[in-house]
Design goal:
This protein has 114 residues and is mainly α. The protein is built from 4 helices and 2 strands, in the order E-H-H-H-E-H. Helix 1 crosses helix 3.
Length: 114
């Protein structure tokens, strides 16, 4: 059985001072030429990258998002985050203990102990 672990990036694994949020918003604005309403995630019905993205596509274009769009958006967003981290590594730093937790998860390969 495979186990999937999901973490919110900013504040759980790394501190990025909301740079990840701003990259997400800028990626959306650049790709769709629509203003990103807010990076206050509490304003959205569900707080995950995919559901926020889907919500905005529905709101701006009155249609559901496609899996191709999701994949394309994630690729561009991921590239921007990597570029930001390369250019400004001091703006992305580990939450104390995050690397150790990752090591433990990788060794156990199961969440039954967590």
């Amino acid at each position: 059985m495979k186990t999937l672990i999901l973490f919110d990036v900013d504040g759980t694994l790394i501190y990025s001072e909301r740079r990840d949020s701003r990259c997400f918003a800028q990626t959306y604005t650049d790709l769709y030429h629509r203003p990103f309403p807010t990076i206050d995630w509490s304003k959205y019905p569900h707080v995950s990258d995919t559901t926020i993205f889907a919500h905005l596509i529905q709101q701006h274009f009155q249609r559901p998002v496609t899996s191709t769009e999701v994949a394309h958006f994630k690729r561009i967003y991921g590239e921007r985050l990597r570029q930001q981290r390369l250019e400004n590594p001091h703006h992305f730093y580990e939450v104390p203990g995050a690397a150790r937790a990752d090591e433990v998860f990788r060794k156990k390969r199961s969440l039954k102990y967590w």
